[in-house]
């Protein structure tokens, strides 16, 4: 980098997005070139970053009978699914729409697990007909309905019960889905009875047990606590003659958005496998990582539209908004925001970085010091997970385009939506 360039800001979490001579790169390509070619807002993913994140899981599981089922709700764009499936991933789905996408990706249907508290009968039938690997069932009522649908199709549904390990909230207050008080899973105390019922239903084949205790977890302790609770149940079930084939520990491993230091997947798995071995447990291990595979493999490129100095705050108005990047509005989430080109002459100013949508909640970053000018491009970092898959058309904004980079190559993996795409679904009024 020339000596005159200001210090390059850090791009959290991924070495695959880095500055070279003051230009932010994705692998071997300058992001400004992609912004120029495809327009903004534009999501850009690094294939090497995706495969690197997956490799940490694969290293951690080497030599074991396992299946990594990418939780595709984190980002379900086909090009990313194909990348992960071709590298050996199965998929964790939560809807019939995700089933269609999963099948399109070329995944072996036997490597699909179906999670979620509210599967409809239609979704169950579609998944049974596709021959998916396992239904992760979340309630007694769902067991009965699935049994009924499977028998009607002359099949047996492979099932796992999602148990709620009720990991102590006081020691781990950041866990959001593994507690008694939420809608997910079957309570630990009811799990034995639920398994007895499942084993008695002729349309079901009891295959496994699963849990998923939350998301953006940055410590291994809650995983290990949940694992112990699950293993207690596995043991109790075996004493009753209900033998399981697999244990599915769900997803939830966090990523670095700012300065979080989650355990690396391989280190976490070393601890998990040690606990399994200590209890003589040789079950097949399933995992359902989402965010930790894709979150830091993507950025969202955006253009500075206006600088708007205010009495109390300076606003930086960008062309990406809450419909593209919903996490700040939904969860008060932090995404780092960095310039694509380091500018020595622009004055650093503290901004509220906001989008064009007509909502005060439409902010992307608060109190960010940036040296930028109108027309400059910025990258909103760590935007690979729960951004594009949660994007909407609010304010009749078309969803952004997406590009996948591999080395020096780039491919458009999703076109920018235009107004005709959604208007085509709306016939003109006929009366
Ligand atoms: C959302 C979800 C995941 C993935 O969670 P991440 O935090 O993205 O890893 C896995 N399993 C289930 C059941 C989920 O609902």
UniProtKB/TrEMBL annotation:
Its cofactor is pyridoxal 5'-phosphate. Specifically catalyzes the decarboxylation of meso-diaminopimelate (meso-DAP) to L-lysine. Belongs to the Orn/Lys/Arg decarboxylase class-II family. LysA subfamily. Its EC number is 4.1.1.20. InterPro entries: Ala_racemase/Decarboxylase_C (IPR009006), DAP_deCOOHase_LysA (IPR002986), De-COase2_C (IPR022643), De-COase2_CS (IPR022657), De-COase2_N (IPR022644), De-COase2_pyr-phos_BS (IPR022653), Orn/DAP/Arg_de-COase (IPR000183), PLP-binding_barrel (IPR029066). Pyridoxal 5'-phosphate binds at residues 252, 288-291, 386. Pathway: Amino-acid biosynthesis; L-lysine biosynthesis via DAP pathway; L-lysine from DL-2,6-diaminopimelate: step 1/1. Transmembrane segments: none annotated. Homodimer. Keywords: Amino-acid biosynthesis, Decarboxylase, Lyase, Lysine biosynthesis, Pyridoxal phosphate. Residues 46-384 form the Orn/DAP/Arg decarboxylase 2 C-terminal domain. It is an enzyme of class 4 (lyase). It catalyses: meso-2,6-diaminopimelate + H(+) = L-lysine + CO2. One of its GO terms (biological process) is lysine biosynthetic process via diaminopimelate. GO terms for molecular function: diaminopimelate decarboxylase activity; pyridoxal phosphate binding. The active site is at residue 358. It holds the Pfam family Orn_Arg_deC_N. This is Diaminopimelate decarboxylase. The modification N6-(pyridoxal phosphate)lysine is found at residue 73. It comes from the Bacteria. The keyword Chloroplast does not apply. Substrate binds at residues 291, 327, 331, 359, 386. The keyword Lyase applies. Residues 55-294 form the Orn/DAP/Arg decarboxylase 2 N-terminal domain.
